[in-house]
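hey m, so remember when u said the tokens were messed up on ur end? i reran from scratch. heres the input so u can diff it against urs
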Amino acid sequence: MSERDFDLLSVGRAAVDLYGAELGTPLEDVQSFEKSLGGSPANVAVGASRLGLDVAMLTRVGDEHMGRFVRQTLAREGVDVSQVATDPHRLTALVLLAIRDRDTFPLIFYREDCADMALCEDDVDAAFVARARVAHVTGTHFSTPTVDAASRAVIRAAKAAGTRVVIDIDYRPVLWGLTGHGLGEERFVESARVTEHLKTVLPDCDLIVGTEEEIRIAGGHPDPLEALRAIRAVSEGTIVMKRGPLGCVVFEGPIGDGVEQGFVADGAPVEVLNVLGAGDAFLAGFLSGWARGAPIAECCRRANAAGALVVSRHACAPAMPTKVELDDYLARAADVPRIDRDERIAVLHRTTTRRAMPETLRVLAFDHRTQLAALTEDTARIERLKLLIAEAAVAGEADGMIVDDRYGREVLDRFTARRWIARPIEAPGPELAFLGEPNLELELRRWSTHHVVKCLVRDPIVDDGRRARQDARIVRLARACEGLGRALMLEVLPLDANGALVEGAAPAAMERLYALGVRPELWKLSPPEDEAWWRAVEATIERHDPHCQGVMMLGYDRPPDALGRAMAIGRRSPRCRGFAVGRTIFFAASKQWLAGEIDDRALVREVEARFVDLVRRFEGSAG
């Protein structure tokens, strides 16, 4: 096969899934929903990309917020979105879903004249199709004339270019107009019309994938073996029949006298939470081998494992495994009796699907509350001060800010989603406590998903019972962040009994926190002028969480020269993500401003100048 730009071009449905968060609740009674990317082709695109394939998507989305969400999510997952068109007239499709029990998954498709169903032949760039090794189409996108024409145009371009074609039968009777809207979960309705229509597509397909019910509709026979024979009568393509927990069976040649005469691959042991999305994960796993010429046995092994991982999780696209976790499971499969109960896999999924952060973060931290409240009782003045500091950060081209919502609410409102932002969860005080207590989880649920949760940890502390309480609270915070998909940054300050910073103690504190099962996305540490300290930090992260996003250097009120020397060492570490410095930059000017000694413009100029100077020190140290 000649070199191609993409391993896979996925064509068709791209929607927004709104999953009921309350398991076991009828859909009509669900009160809260969790939003994620949906649509079988989009799920496969994400799954394949996570498993290491170079993937592109061909679809349409609406010119609205949900369309932007679909496009941004695909791009964030590494999928090329150059062929995702924006439809100026139609809305992005929505799906409402609930998990009633392990066998019942009510769903409602909101797809009346939606954007992806308006995909047309003119949207298909034959030259782009030719850049892919594999083109992936689905049965749903043959259900109306417009998308039928578009999908056939993809197939023609693929055949002309030597691109292999895979069809996921993806049978949803409601989308063929065979059931009412309230039966969206119905997986099989016999239809000669659908069978005959699909049979006109199958001859051009190199790989045909479906469940037993989908094989029956494609073959037009209630007996799976006879349906397989009917498919083989019109297509020479490889047929893969998914069999849920039993795995799959593959037919590359003639159909024998029994289903078991195909290549049988057993499934992985798992307890089912939600089958929705498992078939998409299966296909992504299969294609992660098949698109690159792997033997069928390996393709099936990867497919069955990927499907098993997703049935044990909530939602579709977010549940797709990454290459790291799938490869780890496959290497240990004989020693993993239940894939859904393996803590190592769960940790790998969380840590390898973290939202990516900027490569380098130069951050101005002004989440200080107690220090500023000590200078004035005028809260309005402090709020005004924080707006001016934010203005200085923007003028100094800061990548981000750390700011609280007590005095910095307006800053958060103005800059969320425009700058990287972290905000403190800890309440001011000598002992660790959280804002929103006792309802920590509810507090975090109200935060923007763009906000990194910053928590200050004083360690070591006097072991008079406070350490155990602090440890329990940190673990609770970490679990809450994991469950809600919030990034966590731990700011660790190793202090002695007198409150003085203990130089070099951070690696030991990190070890202790890792031993508690706490794995923050970022660490915020005060580095000494010591290469060995950085090597210890690097080794600690590598042992416990190699997918950690790094270390932010903090200033701890050090003079710029001393901080610059520490930065010169830290900047060379592969684990250094950047810096988040506050009082060194803004505190002196803030005291003058609060005392009326300088005006707004002078404050902004001074804070900007100090920040720019620190950036120069940081960037100059890179050489």
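this time it looks ok to me. The chain has a mean pLDDT of 92. if urs says something different then somethings off w ur setup not the seq
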